[in-house]
């Protein structure tokens, strides 16, 4: 941490700041420039920098060390590759995750999974507990849904991912799913994150609608600090002033995250755009930008889907997209499954 | 719901749309204009309007009825006045809520509560469970903190508000606090909202960092739909591109909410600005804009506070502000306690 | 400027950075901490800090000195008070500016100005050149409009403010108006700003829809750098995700600006909210937050206004608001004219 | 336009609304639903819908027809293909535009143009007039710069694009450049747009930093309404809360625009990200998303560039990227020059 003092500040004020940070457990290194004296505060304690900014004579306080540790490439330089059901995610391996927004019936899941499996998809998605803005909307099948998706996935030798909504549900999810998904609205549900730190299955952590990349990585840090080293980040669009798409898909986050962190990052173009006909171009764009995977909503009959049918691909649309992505991945020197 | 068809659309397409909405449980009223045929869909079902937008020949779908019911002035026209510890909130009554960000020790709470009580404050705030961005930061005293704030509040005849972080904590909070607070990060923690619908104590619902006013009201609707009619809305700043303040306090939300909803709305200028010297001007502005209350962070020693000291007022600063607000409230024809 | 080197960086890399900044005209002061070596670059040159961030071994570059000079309280500590037509703006003096969005006819202006003048308003506003999003909308009366507003203002001994849209119009505006207004869309029209630097009349500079406070102050710096020291800042709402109001009025900008800069800051609640019934509460809030003035749209017949009638007050509404603001200003110890 | 009346509204109020819109030049079609009466207002006049929303008994007013006409696929269904110097932009043809941010010297331009030309680039970019946030930063070479870029481009048989900053500069630009560029800050400089409507050379219109897609298309409409049918749209990032990249590149805008409008859309990944190492992944992503071209900053010595060196590619980096894009374009069935 660097503390920049105001110009022409008195020695007394400098001393008071030095005393303050020492008392908080930091060492102080003073460096006098022509305009400004700068105090380097060296130490590992967590401190709110605004507390120092309010001391007399202080102009500005600058944090040097990153707030995240375990998620950073400083802690682990090589790409983390997560393996689920024989599918690798990260480090040049791109994974396709597909399925309906919501688990509705066994037949719906069976039809969809069969087709997706034929395309080569190895990870099946589907929601059992649905976070809905309106209390009057369909809220999901619950545990019954998890049983269905597990059964269907086993039939086609697929892995399962589904969204866990609170800490008390974790044991239930451990029984049925292979990747526990954290939704955008729960990205800073810290109790849930702590609970997932104790799980020994991968966690797919969606970026919050208005979360900075730094906050997102800090949420991953929560999970890793608990002992779970298998976190998959998922970009799914941020909220901006633009309203022609549901959210604004921030694909620049891919190279930004990949520079700072060793964790794999996948993209959800379905929730980001909210519109079926935007899913294919954004999927290809995400792959070209370097995404380690895609999570795409596919429904055997989007017109009658109970939730988010408008952003779900028809199965034939998915089949075409899958082929295009396979071709693209070759040019991009990526292995796509 | 109004369904606007594309210009020069065929009769067949119109019929298909009519069939679709009837099948979904709506009545259809067709009206042909020069350019566009408009289909009115009448009914009470919840439907994703994008599903209709994807039908052939549809140009646009427009929702007419508001998604919220119980929170709206259509359901209840007169202002809801919530009474806690003899203090009224709403309908011309403005309530002051003050206290530290975090409960640290009995002495800290005792000193602060004594002084605030002398100013005339009747509702004491203080956090026992703290949602922190970093897993390495202080996370609060937990139940021990709730015991402290209750004991101190009773000594000075004050009511207590504190933030509940998940549904399993509700019974504990019912024991100690008078107003259960939902933090901005939990505004769409729907399980928590449902749990709070069964409580018979007021809930203070903070607006999410990137939540629209409509989403905020929908979250209040969740609580009211569960049977709890005492919801206090709390504006605490939204996230924008401006970084000189922590958040952007959206004071226009006050008259906007007061037009649509009968629920009281209070303002938290401490979290919104994140800076002590901005709290007084923003408190006065909130009052002038029509806020039904203010929730302000005050600490007996902000310099040594464990959390958010930088945005906490010194007690003497609060005393001055309280006097200024009392004077202002007279000119504004409001009763401030 | 502080250059923070990566941990365990080689001496050679440090030297290369030092050479680079010396070559760019800076002095270098090296300070070695436990983790990081920090290089202080001292000098007055303008440099893009990203250029240094890209050098080998550099972790982060931090600008210390503010980019603005003349607008800052470091350059001039006391409040700038601008006087127009005997009305003071700034330094405890609050000025009311009112009038229609657009100058339509002599009669419209005459009726409005007479009434406003009776309320005590000394500065009349009205647009002659209108920036419209659609090429098919009414674009203003042009110079004819300026003549009308000047004639009417003279009749009632009022000053005039109107929006100048490009540098070539400045001489025309100097003939007719007392305060030249820069619209939000032109806040970074640098040619216009340079032209206004040579004018010797006050400039009212609106904040851009998505401009940070820093960028806004830099635009004021452009005008002041040209020699014109009379700049009035005008907050008029920023663009956010919230759509129930046209823009989000950022009242926190008032205390933020007043801390950094000596320039007066006024508020335009009409454009910020876009809704007539939100103008009064937001005007009172702006005054309570410390605004040095208000600029409010008033129309003698908003229902038939050619532009922005929906956000214009009826004259009687303005009369009531003016009285309320006068009362408020007394409690706030401000002089309002 | 549809006018939705409040539920249980009186006949009298409905009549008043009907009278009002007739007087404004619209026809009225009344349609009574169970809950709401809806009035269809049919006509071609421009009206502020808020004026109607303020009438007694009106619940909501909904615009049906799009505000843009000439830019829309309703006006012209087939893709507009713009040809410059034998290079096609749009309709399956993807154009590469490259060059430095700023024209500095003849040698700089000559070296850069030679290399780019060898890669196959046919359109050279370079700024002569620079809009800079700070009045103390380098402002460009002016007309001298335009002469240099023209001379160099002619030597290598390239076309030229450069940014025009105000209406008075148009004749000068017509002499030297093939494509007139409008910068993000000038997207709503309506005088400039009108001036460009009379030009008979293509205009590259950058999206404003906080402009919606609708506003952007309306600005294109200004140019087309003036008679110039050759507008190239350019997405270059929007301002959001995320600060790890300079702006957030909104690639979803590509399929959104391509659905509504026949105009070609290109992407500027250099300004969007502001960081050299993000340019390649974002260029590939833009191409995969369907962009009709890319405009990329390349400098022969980014370390010593006078402006935006940090986001400029080294020539060798560009050469590699160009090859990768060529390969990608084959898989995507696009012709890239």
Compact overview of the structure:
The structure is a homotetramer of 337-residue chains. Chain A is α/β, with parallel strands linked by helices and 337 residues long.
Write the layout of secondary structure elements.
The structure is a homotetramer of 337-residue chains.
Chain A: E1 2-5, H1 11-23, E2 27-32, E3 37-42, H2 49-53, E4 58-62, E5 82-84, E6 87-89, E7 93-99, H3 106-119, E8 123-125, H4 143-155, E9 159-163, H5 170-176, E10 179-182, H6 190-197, E11 203-206, H7 213-225, E12 231-235, H8 253-260, E13 265-267, H9 269-273, H10 276-289, E14 293-299, E15 313-314, H11 315-331, E16 335-336
Parallel strand pairs in A: 7-8, 7-14, 7-16, 8-9, 9-10, 10-11, 11-12, 12-13, 14-15
Antiparallel strand pairs in A: 1-3, 1-4, 2-3, 5-6
Helix pairs in contact in A: 3-4, 3-11, 6-7, 10-11
Structure description:
The structure is a homotetramer of 337-residue chains. The first copy, chain A, is an alpha/beta fold and 337 residues long. Chain A has two domains: 2-62, Phospho-2-dehydro-3-deoxyheptonate aldolase, domain 1 (Alpha-Beta Plaits, 2-Layer Sandwich), CATH 3.30.70.1140; 82-336, Aldolase class I (TIM Barrel, Alpha-Beta Barrel). Helices cover 35% and strands 20% of the residues of chain A. The first copy, chain A, is built from eleven helices and 16 strands. Chain A has helices at 11-23, 49-53, 106-119, 143-155, 170-176, 190-197, 213-225, 253-260, 269-273, 276-289, 315-331; strands spanning 2-5, 27-32, 37-42, 58-62, 82-84, 87-89, 93-99, 123-125, 159-163, 179-182, 203-206, 231-235, 265-267, 293-299, 313-314, 335-336. In chain A, the strands form three sheets. In chain A, strands 7, 8, 9, 10, 11, 12, 13, 14, 15 and 16 form a ten-stranded parallel β-sheet that branches. A four-stranded antiparallel β-sheet of chain A has the order 2-3-1-4. In chain A, strands 5-6 form a two-stranded antiparallel sheet. In chain A, strand 7, helix 3 (106-119) and strand 8 form a beta-alpha-beta unit. In chain A, helix 3 (106-119) runs parallel beside helix 4. Chains in contact: A-B, A-C, A-D, B-C, B-D, C-D. The interface between A and B is large, with 48 and 47 residues.
């Amino acid at each position: 941490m660097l503390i920049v003092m105001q110009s022409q500040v008195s020695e007394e004020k400098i001393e008071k700041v030095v005393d303050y940070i020492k008392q908080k457990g930091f060492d102080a290194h003073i460096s006098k420039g022509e305009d400004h004296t700068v105090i380097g505060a060296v130490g590992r304690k967590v401190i709110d920098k605004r507390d120092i900014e309010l001391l007399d004579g202080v102009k500005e306080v600058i944090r040097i060390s990153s707030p995240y540790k375990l998620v950073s490439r400083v802690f682990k330089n090589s790409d983390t590759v997560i393996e689920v059901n024989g599918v690798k995610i990260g480090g040049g391996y791109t994974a396709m995750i597909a399925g309906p927004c919501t688990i509705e019936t066994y037949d719906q899941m069976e039809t969809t999974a069969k087709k997706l499996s034929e395309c080569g998809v190895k990870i099946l998605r589907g929601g059992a507990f649905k976070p809905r803005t309106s209390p009057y909307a369909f809220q999901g099948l619950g545990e019954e849904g998890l049983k269905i998706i597990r059964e269907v996935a086993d039939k086609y030798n697929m892995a399962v991912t589904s969204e866990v909504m609170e800490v008390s549900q974790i044991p239930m999810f451990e029984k049925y799913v292979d990747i526990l998904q954290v939704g955008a609205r729960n990205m800073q549900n810290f109790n849930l994150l702590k609970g997932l730190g104790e799980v020994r299955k991968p966690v797919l952590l969606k970026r919050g609608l208005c979360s900075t990349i730094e906050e997102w990585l800090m949420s991953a840090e929560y999970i890793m600090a608990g002992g779970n080293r298998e976190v998959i980040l998922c970009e799914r669009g941020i909220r901006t002033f633009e309203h022609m798409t549901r959210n604004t898909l921030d694909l620049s986050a891919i190279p930004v995250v990949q520079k700072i962190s060793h964790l794999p990052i996948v993209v959800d173009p379905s929730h980001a755009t909210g519109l079926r006909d935007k899913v294919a171009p954004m999927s290809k764009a995400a792959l070209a930008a370097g995404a380690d995977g895609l999570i795409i909503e596919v429904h055997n009959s989007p017109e009658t889907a109970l939730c988010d049918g408008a952003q779900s691909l028809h199965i034939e649309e998915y089949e075409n997209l899958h082929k295009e992505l396979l071709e693209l991945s070759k040019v991009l020197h990526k292995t796509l499954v």
